[in-house]
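Appendix B: complex inputs.
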Amino acid sequence: MKFKKILPQFLTLLFIVLIFGFFTMNAQENMDTRGIEFGFGFLSKEASFDIQFSLIDYDGSMSYGRAYLVGLLNTLLVSFIGIILSTILGAVIGVARLSPNYLINKTASFYVEFFRNVPLLLQIFFWYFAALRALPMPEDAPLIFGSSFMTIKGLYTPAPIWNNLDVFMIALIVAMIVIYFFNKFAKRKQEEEGKQYPKFLISLGIFVILPALTFFVGGVDVTWSFPELKQLAKTSFTYEGGLGIPPELIALTLALTLYTATFIAENVRAGIQGIGKGQKEAAASVGLTPGQVLKLVVLPQALRIIIPPTTNQYLNLTKNSSLAAAIAYPDLVLVFAGTAMMQTGRAIEIVGITMATYLTISLTISLFMNWYNKRIAIQEK
Amino acid sequence: MFKYLKQLTSLVAMVAVLFTFTTETFAAKKSKTLKNTQKKGFVRCGVSQGLPGFSNADAAGNWTGVDVDVCRAVAAAVLGDANKVKFTPLSAKERFTALTSGEIDILSRNTTWTLSRDADIGLTFVGVNFYDGQGFMVRKDSGITSTSQFKNGISACTNIGTTTELNMRDFFNSKGISYTPVAFEKADEVVAAYDAGRCDTYTTDKSGLAAQRTKMSNPDDHMVLPETISKEPLGPVVRQGDSVWEDIVRWSLNTMIEAEEYGVTSANADMMKTSENPQIKRLVGAEGEMGAAFGLDNEWNLRIIKQVGNYGESYKRNIADTGILPDRGPNELWTKGGILYVPPSR
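Resulting structure:
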């Protein structure tokens, strides 16, 4: 009886192992006949190509491993910004779709229907090429906010130059720890004595005042480096100094955000509509204000509906960021599975590493969101 | 028991048949790629996604160019018909994988012959069909007329996965100029971004610059700077491990170049059979057994010349007459001041 149960599983396992073994041997044999060796030694070799945009120190004399890191960080950067912005935009649009105001409601619906039904790659090309052509050349760029320039070569803004940045950062971390313990304390007070503190205002105060103090007593100082127009040739200009954000990053972030926000908006709408009318009426009848109804009754329940499908959207956004290769944003795919793969010819190793990396990023996001989902789930007592 | 015995015997017989079959083909020393090609009835050739003069498809899907002509020459030699080629357009990134994985049998896609490509990644370069070098394109109104006028902060558009990226770094580093590389996956996007004004200069092989200039919204607004910053010998590539196929492709190319040297053209090839010169007679299959070593008949080279033409005809048709690079420069025969020089067919 037990044997009968195990046999199908054993056969399945054997089948998978055999298939996997067959492909491995086949690849091995083919690589042997063509004189290709398998190995990861290339990662420490000199990359000898430069990358447009990097969060860490990089130049071509560093290794392929370092180039991989540059690509990975660029992918994480665009995914992170994209997730934050699309969540905010998605929440706003989702609520707007439920608005009784006809104009707001229809505008939001039109936005959702339009942006989710146009292929993402097309949207990326649109924001890059159409918007790029519409932007002014550096020498004609108007000032924005008194100090920034939006040009065809990117957005140039003032860059802060810090003195004793570490002291400031430590103050920021200390402020966050203090806020955490204050909130714990306030909660206990409320449970034991029914006393309520203006939690949000006090937290905000700590968050601003504590780091601000370091400017007076910690020797923290910040000066700004402003972008300045520089002439390269008779008709060609650029900006020097300040912080230059490449147009590729802007176009990619814009396209990913606008696309993914439509799906998140629909999740938010579903979440809010999923809460029965009776819940709100019951909450109001025990004397809660409309703000408290939203915060204490509707949102905690709506989030349970919103979180799981939104996790999928976060994963999609991260994976979709690989379309960056089309518009020269140096992400993991362009730098590592593109240039590095071509220069080394190590297709199997590099595609393997890239796949493993995306898998790890996705699983990490997934684990975090599952943890969060569990935290807000109904706790049966 | 007997039932099993019967099955076993048939199995043994089958294995034996298979075994003799394989040893026989080994004995014939025939190229596996050649055999597959003849079985399929077409040559599988990897080309660019559209580079005028080298490999470019028209609206009807007909491919033309000097790179295309190498594949057509091989088809004429091994299949008897230059049109029996299946072209696969490949990006710079895909090209080597497509070849090593067996998706194509010849890669004829303006590919630079370098040591690491030849030795490292399972490829063999069979020759050079175009001597090129990397250059820079700028807008005419910028007033730049030489790379010595480049300044810190210049941005350069280019393709990824090419020797271009590496040469560009070497060049700017040696001049001590800081620059921003903007590298795209496809050539069309590079052209569009440069044309829009994203970059101050566009860098790739000079032949590529000349060809892509024709795609700009206003070609006359742009010019290629005179400096050449690298050696880029472009040529066809095959997989490592099939030396007979390698020889066929190499000598198909050599035949085209040598035919030009001896004045054999698509028009006069048949008449050359009665030439006095034994070298010419060998080129048109009228003397010697030149095809036997590859497992081909004796008129393989005659078919190449008749159907595709010699190298000069191919260059004129694809590159000179289309206005891309009317001056042959280094791609002239060694007898006429260029560096085209191939070993003799004998």
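Residues 2-28 of chain B form the longest helix (27 residues).
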